[in-house]
Design goal:
Layout (H helix, E strand, L loop, with lengths): L1 H17 L8 E6 L6 E2 L4 E3 L3 E7 L4 E7 L2 E3 L3 E3 L2 E7 L5 E9 L5
Parallel strand pairs: 1-9
Antiparallel strand pairs: 1-3, 2-4, 4-8, 5-6, 5-9, 7-8
């Protein structure tokens, strides 16, 4: 009886420990602050520790900063006419925003 209980507890602990590996980990929301149309295939959620990739169209007459929870992200490169931004998903919901700065001199 004692060995059976120990096996059940061990099996339960192993099963719970493997849940994240099988995609059962909690996901957190990615909220877009009135800017979702600025991104292509924008993800709406991710798991903690997952690399999130954002693809944003290039705008030529203004500078657009991508802001994650109040901190500007730096573009990681360019692909197919899009700027690529990445971040590691934390263990909470995040907010993405775009701050625009006009450089053309025309308001």
């Amino acid at each position: 009886m004692r060995h059976s209980l120990l096996r059940i507890l061990l099996l339960g602990a192993l099963t719970l420990g493997m849940l994240p590996a099988f995609g059962c980990a909690k996901t957190y929301r990615i909220v877009y602050d009135n800017c979702k149309p600025g991104f292509v295939d924008a993800p709406e959620a991710a798991r903690r520790g997952e690399t999130v990739t954002l693809k944003k169209g290039i705008v030529f007459d203004e500078i657009q900063d991508v802001i994650l929870d109040g901190t500007a992200l730096q573009p990681q490169g360019e692909a197919d006419g899009f700027l690529i931004y990445t971040f590691m998903m934390p263990d909470h919901d995040v907010t993405v925003a775009i701050e625009s700065h006009n450089i053309s001199g025309i308001e």
